[in-house]
Amino acid sequence: xxxxxxxxxxxxxxxxxxxxxxxxxxxxxxxxxxxxxxxxxxxxxxxxxxxxxxxxxxxxxxxxxxxxxxxxxxxxxxxxxxxxxxxxxxxxxxxxxxxxxxxxxxxxxxxxxxxxxxxxxxxxxxxxxxxxxxxxxxxxxxxxxxxxxxxxxxxxxxxxxxxxxxxxxxxxxxxxxxxxxxxxxxxxxxxxxxxxxxxxxxxxxxxxxxxxxxxxxxxxxxxxxxxxxxxxxxxxxxxxxxxxxxxxxxxxxxxxxxxxxxxxxxxxxxxxxxxxxxxxxxxxxxxxxxxxxxxxxxxxxxxxxxxxxxxxxxxxxxxxxxxxxxxxxxxxxxxxxxxxxxxxxxxxxxxxxxxxxxxxxxxxxxxxxxxxxxxxxxxxxxxxxxxxxxxxxx
Length: 394
Ligand code: AMP
Ligand code: MG
Prior knowledge:
Layout: E1 3-4, H1 6-16, E2 23-27, E3 40-41, E4 51-52, E5 56-59, E6 66-74, E7 88-92, E8 104-107, E9 111-114, E10 117-120, E11 130-131, E12 142-144, H2 152-160, E13 165-169, E14 173-178, E15 183-184, E16 195-196, H3 199-209, E17 213-216, H4 224-234, E18 239-243, H5 254-260, E19 264-270, E20 272-273, E21 277-283, E22 286-291, H6 295-313, E23 323-328, E24 332-333, E25 339-346, E26 352-355, H7 364-369, E27 372-376, E28 382-383, E29 388-393
Parallel strand pairs: 1-19, 6-7, 14-17, 14-18, 15-16, 18-22, 20-25, 23-26
Antiparallel strand pairs: 2-13, 3-12, 4-11, 5-7, 5-8, 6-10, 9-10, 19-21, 21-22, 23-29, 24-28, 25-26, 25-27, 27-29
Helix pairs in contact: 1-6, 3-6
Adenosine monophosphate is lined by residues 178, 180, 182-183, 195, 197-200, 243-247, 249, 292-295, 362.
């Protein structure tokens, strides 16, 4: 069975997973965060007419500098019906349509007005402070593309072109199946050998952020019957995410049971830490991931691999990691050979990052104090303050 490097494993997911493709139409005010299912075109040129980008006076540039007769006013939402002639000016507000004849705006700050005349020392410069019709976008070209995630800026774009309703892809339903006899409900009080189920909740939060519809299933016991029964349910969703039960332990049954369902496995190990045992495959036409059970591993491997699958099933044309680069404020050492993801604090200056101590992938407190993961490459062992380093943002 295949052991892959981090980039190969990611490429394997991205190559295999495509859009489910079911479309629904929703009101624009519900569209943020969804994935557009059809291209939206510019309905007209933008701006629709030559627009002033300053408060001031519209004049003919060839008349500058000089003294001008003020023949009227135009504001945003209005129109000046006449034409600006020689040594004439029309007072104009930001956003208003430039009157015929004028080809320059003189900022109000550069003028004095006295007895119906405007005087300015500004030199002539054709088109100054005018956005001509169509400079931002041309009618009939693509305003927003199918497969793009709708951001607040996309919402502004869709509103501008009159898309009161938008076609989006239906969210993929993602089954979340935690496994383990030691895993008990959040409401319960654990005995010393038990642990509350945090993975189902962190994965659900990550699924929702990736544009999926989380479906949390009851926790599977470490028995063949229970694991079979829950996987059977999980495979009815568009994607199945299991946590735990994928290591080499005697009670790690996930791969065995998936194989019984006729699963095809694309990889079952990736050279990363946390999260080496990590299964990706397909059974009954449904993709699945067996994520490692340690909470730090679960969170990191979701971000690295499963998030791409949720996004691509949801119709996104591409999936990218939330990466940044920053300078280390402190040094540390790691053993070489693996790509590692270590809890870190990306500082408010936005330029530096601090490596944080942790006790390994069960250390939820350390990861919850952090806001990012440092990425170390297999060949590098020593890191010093001031070194540039890549960061995966939480
Ligand atoms: P496993 O991969 O099944 O051996 O799980 C590794 C460890 O992860 C277990 O010993 C638990 O401490 C922890 N773990 C597994 N499942 C969960 C879960 N749903 N929530 C929190 N911790 C878990
Ligand atoms: Mg287990």
